[in-house]
Amino acid sequence: MDLATTAGGAASQPGDYDAVRRDIAAILHQPEYDDGSAGPVLVRLAWHSSGTYDAASDTGGSDGAGMRYEAEGGDPANAGLQHARVFLEPVKEKHPWCTYADLWILAGVEAIKQMGGPDIPFKGGRTDFPDDSRVPPRGRLPDGAQAADHLRHVFYRMGFNDQEIVALSGAHNLGRAHADRSGFQGPWVSQPTKFSNQYFKLLKNLEWKEKEWTGLRQFVNDDLGKELMMLPTDMALIDDDQFRPWVEKYASDQDLFFE
After folding, report:
1. Which of the residues 112, 129, 159, 216 has the least number of beta carbons within 10 Å of its own beta carbon?
2. What is the pTM of this model?
3. Does a structural domain hold residue 120?
4. Are 106 and 155 in the same domain?
């Protein structure tokens, strides 16, 4: 069986994704980055590499790792994700048989698990584009400044329904927005490196007021001792009659959200 030799001299067996998982887990602690963890930005990388999918044309999505090319990586919607890709380079170097496309998705899966979330099934087999000729067009990712109709337009294109839109929005339980990347600023929850259903609880139970500042329109609350924020697309989940019941269900039942 072919073995890929790592820089350190150890052998890595092709298909040994458990070994890749262990090395992803080992690089999550990043004391100089954000809240001390690379986990949230790795989940965002996995999502943004997937969220370009178009079901009608079967283009975009997690196959190809198109963010390696400026046409996709330079999309303003992907600002800041170069940090995630840099964090993963040592893992890629140690397991050269693992494609970038698989690595980015597995990194999101393992990060969620390590941050207290569910163990999401993973299957490998994605390939890396040899050039940028198949990179999807820009503009397919959600815009946090928009409303419910925009969410449906973007997520229905991928084949998701209203319940799945709300569930996927629960990833906002992780990380924080950066004004110099997205135009928004701050964390959604008080523990942004722990995967839980707190996002739904706070969205449902707190009173959110529009922030007075020069940045993009967002909503804030400081009842828990520090300023937390929600995007217009987050508020759309609680304002929309079809989205709201799922927010309420996930707020009251973390196991249901994890499922």
Report:
1. 159
2. 0.94
3. no
4. no
Could you give the residue numbers annotated as active site? 48, 188
CB neighbour burial string for 120-149, b if at least 16 within 10 angstroms, e if fewer: eeeebebeebeeeeebbeeebbbebeeebe
Q: Which of 114, 137, 164 is the last residue of a domain?
A: 114
| pLDDT tens by residue, 66-102 | 999 999 999 999 999 999 999 999 999 999 999 999 9
pLDDT, tens only, 12-49: 799 999 999 999 999 999 999 999 999 999 999 999 99
Instruction: Dig out the tokens for 177 from the structure.
Output: 């927005």
Q: Which structural domain, as residue segments, surrounds residue 204? A: 148-258
Q: Does residue 180 surpass a pLDDT of 70?
A: yes
Same structural domain, 94 and 161: no
How far is it, in rounded angstroms, from Cα 193 to Cα 116? 9
Residue 173 lies in a domain: yes
